[in-house]
Each structure stands twice: as structure tokens, then as C-alpha cells.
Amino acid sequence: MRIRQLIIKNFGKMKDKDVELTGGINLFYGRNESGKSTIHTFIKSMLFGLERGRGRAAVNDTFSMYEPWENPNYYSGMLKFESGGKRFCLSRNFDKYQRSAELICEDDGEELSVADGDLEMILGGLTTSGYENTVSIGQLRAEPGQPLAAELKNYASNYYATGNSDINLEKATEALKGRLREQERKAKEALQRKHRSREKIELEASYVWRDVHRLEGEQERISQELENRREKEHQRKEEPENKRVIDELRPNKWRIHPVEIVLFAVAVVFAFALIPKPWNYLVAIILFLLCGIYVWNRMKIDKWAVKTEPEIILEEITPEEEKIPLDKLRWELNHVREELQERRVQYDNLKEQLEELDEVSDLSREQDRNIQAVRLAMERINGLAAKMQEELEQRLDDKASEIIDAITGGKYTRLVVEDNLHMNLISDGKKIPVEQVSRGTIEQTYFALRMASAELLYEEEYPVILDDTFVYYDDVRLENTLKWLAENKRQVIIFTCQEREARMLDKMGIRFCKC
Fold it and tell me: Which residue has better confidence, 284 or 13?
């Protein structure tokens, strides 16, 4: 990629500024507050956009810092660049109310969509984090951040495992973690449902078991009563004299004697025959009615008669069960048996359901397999990342060592990058932690790491943008650095407030464009 032209329509303190850039070294010289950092920020904003912060963060965010001093509503610019052998024109309007982005291929006039990721595709997947930690160095920000360590780890695992560095290990790991959480959530919900079902079935089974015991007791009681009745009936048949005793205690309900009926008839006949007419009819009718009333009352006397003492004693000593008819007892026994059978079947079904719950279901086995598969995938990825990280560190060490050796003129022949970007320098066979060297050497170490990482991570070469990066460099190492940049980089953009870079480039005969 090569930036051809910057058209700053309204950005920060700059307005209607047009800058032509060439291949090789482009030098922006200017004193403090001359706009060097503004141009640096403009390039980043054009490539990756510029979002306004929210709430309190909006006060000191980049959007607010570089909002145009004049006519802030007209907040826009244009960047022309080459990539993949084609020329493109990127226009952006940063205004919060009219934000827009337009990308056009100048070779064939095709209009591309920034929102759909066409610009990201053209840039080869270069992200803001990767840009800031490799090819772009801001003022006093030479030290790369931890995102570079994560990106290098990503690159190691993805490239060596698949041959494709476009796959994002971090995103893949996060996706697997999300998948694992989802599978564990489903398994937990299934276990909770299983426990709730078990509790419900166990509660229902306890009620059914209680009914079974109650019905078994009822069945035993009725069966015992019927057995007692049969034994008593058998005893009555063997001892007939007992029946006569009961008959004496319980006389017949019909209380009229035949002699009384004959006497009543004779009295009515005599009254009719002996009493002179017509009174004999009246007297006979009256006697007949009186006799009829007497007979009626004697026949139904049990309605008002008071039970005899033997009868009362017999009823008191007779159990309630003996008072229930045998047919009713038999019906109750059959009914209890049927209900008991139903309850036993219901209880057996509930026991089978509990046994089925205790068994591992196909769904549970599948969920366990899925969880184990996700965990295994995460272990494999982490193991692969650790294994391939060693190989990446070797390649990174080799590239960074070449650069630091060129910059320091052979004083430090090797740069060793360890976990979390902890670095050590090798000089005369001695291993020196980077914390023990001078500030200038530390800055040069960071520079070497950034340049080596950019060559390793990205297939396409991007412009190197340096904003007052050489403040701590001495003249010798600055010359070495500029020479290395001129020989190894397609396009370099240097922002500086000093003139020594220009003098050194002229001294070494290196062509550059002064902007």
C-alpha cells in the first residue's frame, strides 16, 4: 500500500490543505503546533474512521480534539492511495450529523462500500490496534501495547495450523468459550428440569403409597369382617337354640291375636241383632270402626312402641360392622380391591419414571459429548498456540535481530522476544534485559520489534508513519535507522520538529520528499 495524496478539507486547525506523497521517505518538518500530529491523526482517521465518544468521554476524545476550529459542521477529508496494483479514492465526512464514507476505485470507477467491509478487505485486515502497534508510532509511544502480543499469538497459531493468518485465534477462542457456556447452560437447565420432575414424581408417589397403605388396611378390615360374619353364620347353623333366644328377645311386629278378631266380629253382630232399628246400624258401624282402629294400631305398634330392655342391650353390644348388610360389605370389598389395584399400577408407573430419570438420557450424553468436544478444542488450540508460539518467537527474533543489529551498528547482535513481549538484548554473548539499557536503546528495541512484527503479520507492506520517533536517538543510530528505512520500506512518512533528519538524508545521499 502507498498513500498518494492527502486532501484535508476541514480537520483540526487545517483547512483546504493538499499534500502529495511519493514513494520512499516523505519528511514533514515543522515546529511545535505546526500541524504534524494533526496530519498523523488525519491519516489514521481516514483509514479507520473517527467516532465520537459518549458522555464524559466525549470531552477529551479524538473527535473533539480535532474538530475543526472554523465551520465545525464541515468536518471532512479525502485520501488517495494504491493497493494491490489499483488506485483508490477514500472520502469521509466526520460530522456527527452527516457522517459518511465513500470509496471508489479510480481505475474502473467501481464504487465500493466501506460499511460492508470493502475497505477492510483492501487493507488486508489491518486493524486500528495493529496499525498503532506496528507501522504507526506516535509521539513518545514507541512501546507497543499488549494487543500486539495477542495478535502475534493469534498469528502463530493460525498461520502454522492452517496456513492462513486471516483466522483470528482470539475470536475463535471466545467463540468456543461462548459455545461452552451455552452448552453448560443447557446442561444445567436440563439437570434442573430433571430435579424438578423427580421432586414432583416423588411427591406424587408418596401420596399414592399412602393411599395404597390405606386401601390395604381397608381391604383387610372388610375381609376380616366378612370372615367374622361367615363364622357367626356357621355357628348359628350349628346351634339352633340360639335362634330361639333371639326370637324371644325380638317378638314379631304383628301384635293382634285371632281370638281378638273373633270377639270383635261377635260384638258387631250382636249389636246389630239386639239393638232395635235403626240404632243397630249406627252402633254396629261405630263398633266396626273402633275395632278397625284397634287392629290397625296393634298391627303398626312398633312405630310407637318402646324397645324392650333386652333389645336395647342387644343393639348396644352389636358392632357397627354387623349392622351393615353383607351385600354392601361385599360391594365395598370389590370397590376397595379395584381402587387398590389402580393405585398399585400407578405407583409402579411412578417408580419406572424415577428409574428412567436415574438413567442417563441420550440428550444428556449428547450434551456431555458437546461439552467435552468444546473443551478438547480449546485445549488443542491453547496447546497449538503454545507450541507454535515458540516457532513464531524464533522468526520474530531473527527479523528483529537483523534490524537491531543494523541500527546499533553491530553492538547488539540479537534481540530475544519472550512472553508478553518481554525483551532481552545479546551483546558479546551476554544477555541484557532491555530495562537495563539506555532510553535511546529501548526506543530502538521497540522500533525493531514493531518493524519485525509488521513484516511477519501482514502480507502487504504498509507505509511506516513516525511522529517524532527519533528524539532519543544519537546521530549514528539515527543514520543507521534512516538508512535501513530507505533500503527496506516502500514508503516512510516522518514527522519531526528537528532538521537533523533532513541533514542526514542529504549527507547519505538518500532522496526524500520534503512536505
Answer: 13
Predicted pLDDT of residue 360: 63
Pairing of strands 100-105, 111-112: antiparallel
Give the confidence band of 249 by pLDDT, cuts at 50, 70, 90. Answer: very low
My answer on whether omega of the bond before 278 falls inside 30° of 0, hence cis, is yes
Task: Report the amino acid identity of residue 128.
Answer: T
Q: Quick one: cell of 421?
A: 513481549
Residue 131 in grid coordinates: 496499525
Per-residue HEC secondary structure of 39-58 comes to: HHHHHHHHHHCCCCCCHHHH
Q: Indicate yes or no: pTM above 0.70.
A: no
Cell of 79: 485520501
Environment class of 76 (CB within 10 Å of its CB; exposed 0-12, middle 13-18, buried 19+): buried
d(CA 488, CA 452): 11
> 499: helix, coil or strand?
coil
pLDDT of res. 464: 96
Name the DSSP letter for residue 26.
E
CB atoms within 10 A of CB 515: 18
Of the two residues 174 and 461, the one the predictor is more confident about is: 461
Could you tell me the strand order of the sheet in which 24-29 lies? Answer: 136-137, 464-467, 491-496, 24-29, 512-514
- By DSSP bridging, strand 100-105 and strand 86-93 are antiparallel
